[in-house]
Design goal:
Length: 145
């Protein structure tokens, strides 16, 4: 398996995660207008860039025959969690930068959204990351004796 295939698999898992996030947002009643969706576009771009970059960096270990399966699962979880953090920073910055001069802008537009994103999204991202690491390791080592 090549690094490009690992990145493609990570982007597929990022799309699954993004679809789950949108489903949860709709389930809890997010009904913003078009002006409210600019941060979601920034967040989605942050998620895709983060998952592509981190999976490319981790691909060397994931496809290494000497790397263990449990290590690949842990590395997949790390890739997913770092991608989640980058997604949160990208989405928050699109709201923070226009309001940088406001009192407590960093608290309201960076720290609170990051807290809730990590509070709600850590477990699902670790589950998806573990599945990503496990299936990538299994596919990369299926041809080995």
């Amino acid at each position: 398996m090549s690094k490009g295939k690992v990145v493609l698999r990570a982007l597929i898992f990022a799309t699954i995660g993004l679809a789950l996030q949108v489903g949860v947002m709709l389930l809890i009643g997010f009904r913003g207008g078009p002006a409210e969706y600019d941060w979601t576009i920034s967040a989605a771009l942050g998620l895709y860039i983060g998952s592509a970059l981190t999976s490319f960096l981790a691909a060397g270990w994931l496809i290494n025959p000497k790397f263990s399966k449990s290590g690949s699962i842990a590395l997949g979880c790390l890739v997913a969690w770092v991608s989640l953090v980058l997604e949160g920073l990208a989405g928050s910055s699109s709201q923070f930068l226009p309001r940088i001069s406001e009192h407590l802008a960093a608290l309201n537009y960076i720290f609170k959204p990051m807290f809730w994103l990590l509070f709600v999204g850590t477990i699902p991202s670790l589950i998806l990351g573990g599945i990503f690491g496990n299936t990538t390791w299994s596919r990369a080592h299926a041809k080995l004796p």
